[in-house]
Amino acid sequence: MEDGGGTVIYVGKAANLRNRVRNYFSKTGDERPKVRFLVQQIANIKTILTDTEKEALLLENNLIKEHRPKYNVNLRDDKSFFSLRLNLSHPYPRLTLIRTQKIKADGAKYFGPYSSAHDARITLSLIRKLFPLRQCSDRQIATIRRPCLNCQMNRCMCPCTGTVDTAEYRRMVENVSLFLEGKNEELIRTLKKDMDTASEDLRFEEAARIRDCLYAVDRTLQRQNVSFFHFKDQDVFAILEEPRDTYVVEILSFKKGNLLSEQSYIIRNSTLEYHEILSSAIKQFYHNSSVVPPEIIVPRSLEGQEVVESWLSDIRGSRVIIKAATRGTNARLIKLAMKNAGMALEREEQKRQAANALDRLAGKLKLVTTLKLIECYDISNISGSEAVGGKIAFLEGKPLKAAYRKFRIRDFQDQNDPGMIHQVILRRIKHADNDPLGDLLIIDGGKSQLNAAVEALKSLHPDSRPPVISIAKARSPEEYDRIYEPNRKNHLNFAKGDSSLLAVMKIRDEAHRYAHSFHTDRRNKLAIRSILENVPGIGKRKSTTLLKTFGSLKSILEAGDEKLNNVPGISSNDIKRLREHFRENAAIVPKVGQDNF
Prior knowledge:
This protein is of the alpha/beta class. Helix content is 45%, strand content 16%.
């Protein structure tokens, strides 16, 4: 159905198109609110005939995805999703994190999609700890001349050396697939079998590696294996209906009873109804998906459920059942999904409040631009020693960790916070072409720090200078923090508890935490490096290399001679001196042994 401008405003399907369309325009026909709004705008109706209802369902999905009609449910926008890709065409497959809208038929294995990059990266990090897969790229492995650092630290089987058995590496890749597919029991059985086989064949080094992997997997599963009522592979769909024409579609995915992922979609539309949203959510969620569970739990039965089940069964390659939860375990799963939907709505409300606070701040500062990206800077030092600067960023009211930056302050012997701010802003400006400045810069400090930042920004063209303010802490508990603008004598007036003031304080506190943490690490690292440099034969270069490789003094002392010997530049004599020195000075180890870098 199209409006007067030729824009598609609704896509629908029916076994009998004549009756369906006539029902829209009949006075006693469809009385849904959506229909009343829809028929007022219809200028043209186009039809496409298909042979089966399943073909009609697929066509409906494709047309909705292409045209995004106003009166259809649009569960997903055009964003892509994170997946893990295992390239099986390479002799030594590598697990990588990718972002894509559609799984490609390229011979690789895909796992996901994951609801956030954070979840996907945690999974990738866990896999790399459990299984020594290669991490270097195809180009690196083709041109590398010596073993990489991961190889030297025993975090990789070292295919770059050309001495790794391809069959052994493939067995490990299969175990990675089992782990990501949630086949935990099968994975443990396979690892035990491979360990026994390697031991019988006198391949003791491989058997020891598999044994360590088995222990690590077992500990991980014990720590993460939280089961919810059952041991099935299934997805759970629930819809939370809220006032003001708001719906939350909540999807929980289970593997062997373990909750693997949670996704929420908020839909605001006064013309949609519950049964339409539920049906469209299922069809759009599995459109272009490679992973369909054998069982899908829903709060109510679907219209045309048999056709949807048949379509999902074709995607999966085996039967898929859609069950309406009425009581027992399934009803409890729906309740769990509803609880998560409520939390998603609460997060959305917090995001809206943050946006309102930033809009109020922009109004207070008389800015015409929307404050989406805000940067905040802080200096941390003790009487000028080991001075550092920190830059943090908030995007639409949330921390943007990828934009955080650390600065080591140069050429300052005494405490001079304004001068240090000036240096940090100048160094930040040098990267503005590749990393554009935020919509607002916040400086932690008073008018002197603000003036230093303004002076540094003068190196930019006036049209490209972002607005800048500073925030100084309250002088007494009865007062509130003060915000200063350039060329203004007094601070801005905010009511105590003003949302825009609280937003600036929250950003400032995060910048202070980040800079202070960096400064503490710098001081501790300097202290430990000086301790290492006191070891005969271990100078600045070797101590730095050891700390970069192992991360802490405790890890260095706990490492075996073989691992220490693999560190570039560290000889067997160096290891002997390290052991002897800390055996004679054991009292200093507990004081610094827990510090990590």
